[in-house]
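Homework help board

Subject: predicted structure for assignment chain

Our instructor gave us this sequence and asked us to write out the predicted structure in token form, then describe one feature. I got the tokens but I'm not sure how to describe them. Can anyone check?
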Amino acid sequence: MPKRIGGNQIQKSDIARFNKLAKAGKPVQFLGPDKQWYSWEESDIWGKNIFGSDQEGEDHTFSLSQIDMVEESTKIKKSELQKMIKEEIAEASRAGDIAPQNKWWTNDPVELMRHVYWLKSQLPPSDKNLWNKNLNSLVAGLDQKFKAPGNEKAKFIKNGTR
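My token output:
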């Protein structure tokens, strides 16, 4: 049975999930203001505008407030979502945007934070205290899994601290 969410009940977490489902080729439909069904393609980074296509394949843009209902035709398993995230990281690594996790300290700290938040469909914190706290938390987790050689960890934190 398809899962339906009323337009006024859509949360940021729903938008992120719909974007991931659409990117994975899973059908997500929404009811536009003209009472026609559209295929969810993606949202803008703020989640305020939704990009979709009609049955003829024409692209349309709607504000979130114009959407009456979203229908999620299939559920995505946690393992599938983890696989999608790993594939995104691997793709970014191949493109030269970000180093693999086992060489995390070779990245630019700002770019790594942006990338991590992008994977979560969020913007990095603008508050410098929250930024520094989250950077330290990220570095601690990465360093626990993949130890940085010598003083690379301290240099990384120093370069990323605001």
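Reply (TA_rk): Your tokens look well-formed. For the description, you could write something like this. DSSP finds five helices and six strands in the chain. That's the kind of observation they're looking for.
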